[in-house]
Amino acid sequence: MGGLRCVDGSYLSVTPIACRDSVGRPYEITLELHRDGRPYGSVGERCGWLLARLARGVDQARRDGGAAGRWADPDDRFPDEAPDSELFSFRYRTRSGLVGGGELRCQLRTIPRWQPVTGEWRLTRRAYVEAWGATGVGMRAVLTSAELSGFVRGLVEEAEGCLEGRDLARNPVQGAGTGESR
């Protein structure tokens, strides 16, 4: 179970739960959210492939330095170079398409900080992971790219375990719903 300490002191737990096809074989995940151990929401049906892609993207950005090395500090490097962009947004949806029951999103923000020693502004980037429960109460964690990488990588590893070793990066699912083994 992945988790984050939020700025208000609460703890957000995120647990991947397998989605199953018509013959009971796991093929993707949904995320169950808990706030300080209490149920908070269910979001992101079939979001595993996106999380796997994000984990690879954050790791790549940390290694490569971003666009022409714009971000000297690896903690400021994220896969999307657009300012204040969204890395993901997962909601709960009913079969009829209604939205409700929770949301989990991650948005990049660029933050200027004054450096009194040098007399200059320094830009930093952080991932703001925000969650809302079914009641509409929100929580927020602010992460460096290393912290986001660890959080997402942990979710992907746990998801692949609950999917009986299936690699989330594969899409579409081979043999899903056909009764064939992979």
> Averaged pLDDT, please?
85
Q: Pairing-aware structural class of the strands and helices? A: alpha+beta
Distance between the termini: 26 Å
Main sheet characteristics: 4 strands, antiparallel
Helix count equals 2
Cross-sheet strand order for the largest sheet: 1-2-3-4
Cα shape: globular
What's the topology here?
Blueprint: E1 2-5, E2 11-20, E3 26-35, E4 38-43, H1 48-64, E5 86-93, E6 99-115, E7 120-132, E8 138-143, H2 145-162
Antiparallel strand pairs: 1-2, 2-3, 3-4, 5-6, 6-7, 7-8
Core attributes:
single chain, 182 residues, alpha+beta, 4-stranded antiparallel beta sheet, 2 helices, 19% helix, 41% strand, globular, disordered C terminus
Structural account:
The chain contains 2 helices and 8 strands, in the order E-E-E-E-H-E-E-E-E-H. By secondary structure, the chain is an alpha+beta fold. It has one domain (about 5-165). The strands form 2 sheets. It has a 4-stranded antiparallel beta sheet with strand order 1-2-3-4. A 4-stranded antiparallel beta sheet has the order 5-6-7-8. Helix 1 packs antiparallel against helix 2. The longest helix has 18 residues, at about 145-160. The chain is globular, with a radius of gyration of 18 Å. Residues about 170-180 have low confidence and may be disordered.
How is this structure best summarized?
This protein has 182 residues and is an alpha+beta fold. It contains two helices and eight strands; from the N terminus they run E-E-E-E-H-E-E-E-E-H. Helix 1 (48-64) packs antiparallel against helix 2 (145-162).
